[in-house]
Amino acid sequence: MSAPWGVAGGSPGAAGENLLQPQGDEDSAVSLADNCTIRVHAGDVIRMRTPGSEGLGSATRRPGASGLEQAASLFLRRGSGAAPQLIADGGVDETRLERSL
Prior knowledge:
Elements: E1 17-21, E2 30-32, E3 45-49, H1 67-78, H2 83-86, E4 87-88, E5 91-92, H3 94-100
Antiparallel strand pairs: 1-2, 1-3, 4-5
């Protein structure tokens, strides 16, 4: 799958991906073509990662909060399970946030 384009100088979003995990084993996951027919067996897992949202403008040129702080606030608004781990001591744990993006 192709990645969504960035807008106004923003970075492109993450591309989508379809994976087959035989017997649910993440370590043996196989990437699937965008349009394919496969045979699955009991216990197999099909994982669909949808394309991520594109960037809007340069994160380094935004007024106010840093791009990382803005991204963390999006996690909080969307109710992501990752959000509580990203906020520490009243600020953004930038290392964890970068790993989660």
